[in-house]
Amino acid sequence: MTNYAFPKDFLWGGAIAANQAEGAYLEGGKGLSVVDLLPTGDKRRAIMKGDVPSLTPIEGEFYPSHEAIDFYHRYKEDIALFAEMGFKSLRVSIAWARIFPTGEEATPNEEGLQFYDNLFDELIKNGIEPVVTLAHFDVPVHLVEKYGSWRHRKLVGLFETYAKTVLERYKNKVKYWMTFNEINMLLHLPFLGAGLVFKKGDNVEQIKYQAAHHQLVASALAVKACHEIAPDAIIGCMLAAGSFYPFTCNPEDVYQGMEKDRESYFFIDVQSRGEYPGYAKRFFRDHNLDIVMEDGDAEILKNNTVDYIGFSYYSSRTTSTDPEINKNMTSGNVFGSVANPYLAKSEWGWTVDPLGMRITANQLHDRYQKPLFVVENGFGAHDEPQEDGSINDDYRIDYLKRHIAAMGEAIQDGVNILGYTCWGPIDIVSASSGEMRKRYGYIYVDRDNAGEGTLERSKKKSFNWYKTVIASDGTDLEG
After folding, report:
1. Residue 376 annotated as catalytic
2. Residue 328 above 90 pLDDT?
3. Most buried among 135, 336, 365, 412, using CB within 10 Å?
4. 4, 408 in Cβ contact below 8 A?
């Protein structure tokens, strides 16, 4: 394997989300958020799509976000481990409902603000740059009840208030911001991505794209606020990325692959270029979607484009127009993908495609000509501790090594990549399945799918491997 020389200021690190790590779901004045209504088990995916039986937790269901891995109380211990690995950055999110419990208080919750002050101080003390996402699947439930969440224009102003509040509070501590995590997830898991709940007879596409418009305007206003409040900071958007390959060279397959990619690029086209692309306008016409835009929206979008493109990459996807081929779909992939015969799959049905990382990075670079930031990449697997407590996760090391190498190739291709915050440097609750069994971390957390365990932390084999990678600035991927 070729060794790579990454830039000396490259932001090596890891990424977690408030709702998958913090726990303490109603502690410190926090309000209920949408992820607090996602149980484990068979109902989870339907709820994430918008079929929500209750806007309060149901007795007898297990909600893994309520305690998660208790990062809220244990963050100092965890940050010490990240510092031991040599992290230059940690991507975290702020829970909107910790700052404004219902989303529309006149004044923010000081206890919530202080928690993030303490968290950022601890990171900075350990030489770790905070990379902060404003909205990571965390709409306050009150806003779902009262307004129908992002389908209502009211949320634009409420989000702007929230963004301005935290930007002002942390302007001297945070240099790297992102607006919405995986904003394109709104189309695929609309309750998770945007707090959208549907009832029989709803025009689902109309509601989703109207909500998307509101999020895009809110994102642009957050960019504007960041540039005004913290002019030395930079703020980006965030895409759930991974190119769609046509299953064959049949032009029908190739065109469908382009259309599938555009479903996601649509959001970033607006956030990065500042206007709705022609293909989106045609899509609205062809599907009789009437997206309500207020006077001034076009100017807001045009004048407040993002500084960089953050993206997650776990796997590529494959698409076909052949009904017979489409019978062979992979399991577990939110976006839906035909099984690619050239690629291996994880236990959860995700294809393993390191070259796809390079392809995706180059495509984003060619399309936007802005700095990129790989803010999620990782391998979910079942880790089995040995009798002596050791965890030999060579499969994870292999996956990450090959993806970091692909990222190194992309940098040599001329792609400007700011950093790499791999997903789940410590085991956290899986967003898609709610499991703890699906682990990503270099650090094992003693907790199972039923919420049992000591929450004790321990190092896996990959811990020291990643420590070596960072110490060598990516020139030693063998560990």
Report:
1. yes
2. no
3. 135
4. yes
- Who's near 254: CB < 8 A, 6+ residues apart? 246
- β-sheet bridge partners, residue 308: 236
pLDDT band at 331 (very low <50, low <70, confident <90, very high): low
The active-site residue out of 122, 376, 409, 435 is 376
Only one residue has tokens 């893994």, namely 64
Domains of the chain, start order:
11-471 (3.20.20.80)
Distances (CA, A) of 351 to 143, 276, 315: 36, 32, 5
Alpha carbon distance 251, 235 (integer Å): 38
Burial classification of residue 296, based on how many CB atoms lie within 10 Å of its CB (0-12 exposed, 13-18 middle, 19 or more buried) = exposed
Contact 149, 195 (CB under 8 A): yes
Judged by average pLDDT, the poorest of 53-62, 110-119, 246-255, 327-336 is 327-336
Mean residue pLDDT of the chain comes to: 96
- 108 contacts: CB under 8 Å, gap ≥ 6: 99, 100, 165
Report percent pLDDT > 90 for the chain: 93
Rg of the chain on CA atoms, in Å: 21
Q: What stretches of 284-416 adopt beta strand conformation (E)?
A: 308-313, 317-319, 344-345, 351-352, 372-376
d(CA 311, CA 406): 15
Per-residue pLDDT tens digits for 265-294 = 999 999 999 999 999 999 999 999 999 999
CA–CA dist 304, 220 (Å, integer):
5
Say what angle helices 354-368 and 251-273 make with each other, to 10 degrees: 60
What are the φ/ψ torsions at residue 14 (nearest 5 degrees)? -150, 175
- pLDDT tier, 336 (very low <50, low <70, confident <90, very high otherwise): confident
DSSP 414: T
Please state the rounded mean pLDDT for residues 189-218.
97
Going by C-beta distance under 8 Å and a sequence separation of 6 or more, which residues neighbour residue 356?
242, 243, 313, 315, 316, 406
Whether pTM > 0.85 for this model: the answer is yes
